[in-house]
Amino acid sequence: MARLYFTGIKHSGKTTQARLAASLLAIPYADSDDLVLSLTGAESVREYFKEHGKDKFMEAEREALSAFLNNNDSFILSLGGGAADNAPLMQLMKKTGKIIYLKRNENEMLPVILKHGMPAFLDPEDVEGSFHKVYARRDAVYSEAADLVVDLGPYRDKEETARMLVEKLKENGYV
C-alpha cells in the first residue's frame, strides 16, 4: 500500500510528476483540487476560494481528503501549493501516508508562476518580496513535514524527472 502526497510550491511540477509517477508505478493518481470540486460541486477551485474564502476552502480540502481516504488504499495525490497553510490537512496527510516535497529553487519559481498570471497570494506592489515571504514560509513547512524532499531543479525532461523520482521513492521503500 502506497499513500503518497506530492507537495510543493505553486507550479513546481506536483501534478505533472504525480501523474507520471503514478503511471510508471501503475497506482491510482488523484489531484486535491479535483477532490474539492467533487465534494463542493463548485465549477473551479478559484471561484470556490473567491466566493467562500480561505478558511472554508481549507476546511473543504481536508474534508475532501478524508472522504477520499475512506475509499482508497494506494495512490499518489498532488496537493495545491497552499496546502502548507492548512495545518489540519498537513496533519491528516502525515498520519495517513508519506509526504513527498518536490522542491524547486525559489529563483526559478517566480517567473514560472507569473507566466500563469498574478496569483492572489502575491502583493502587486512588491511581487518579489511577497513571493520570497510565501516561499520561505511554505518551504519551511514542507521541509519539516516531508518524509522525503526531492530537489527537482530545472526540468531537463519531465519523463526523465519522473523516472528519477520513482527511483527515489523505491530507494526509500515508499513503493
Q: What is the makeup of the main sheet?
A: 5 strands, parallel
Q: Helical stretch count? A: 7
Number of E-state strands: 5
| Second rung of CATH, namely the architecture | 3-Layer(aba) Sandwich
User: What class, by secondary structure content?
Assistant: alpha/beta
H/E element order: EHEHHEHEHHEH
Q: Can you say what the CATH homologous superfamily is?
A: P-loop containing nucleotide triphosphate hydrolases
Q: What integer value in Å does the Rg equal? A: 16 Å
- Counting structural domains, the number is 1
Question: Taking all residues together, what is the mean pLDDT?
Answer: 93
Strand content: 5-15%
What would the principal axes of the Cα set say about the shape? globular
Q: How is the quaternary structure best described?
A: single chain
Main CATH class: Alpha Beta
Low-confidence stretches: none
What fold name stands as the CATH topology?
A: Rossmann fold
Portion of residues within helices:
55-70%
Largest sheet, spatial ordering of strands: 2-3-1-4-5
What distance lies between the first and last C-alpha atoms, to the nearest angstrom? 8 Å
What is the element layout, followed by pairings?
Blueprint: E1 3-7, H1 14-25, E2 29-31, H2 32-40, H3 45-71, E3 75-78, H4 87-96, E4 98-103, H5 106-115, H6 127-145, E5 148-151, H7 158-171
Describe this structure in words.
The protein is of the alpha/beta class and 175 residues long. It has a single domain, classed as 3-Layer(aba) Sandwich (Rossmann fold). The chain has 7 helices and 5 strands, in the order E-H-E-H-H-E-H-E-H-H-E-H. Strands 2-3-1-4-5 form a 5-stranded parallel beta sheet, sandwiched between helices. Helix 1 crosses helix 7, helix 2 crosses helix 3 and helix 3 packs parallel to helix 4. The protein is globular and about 45 Å long. The N and C termini lie close together (8 Å). The mean pLDDT is 93.
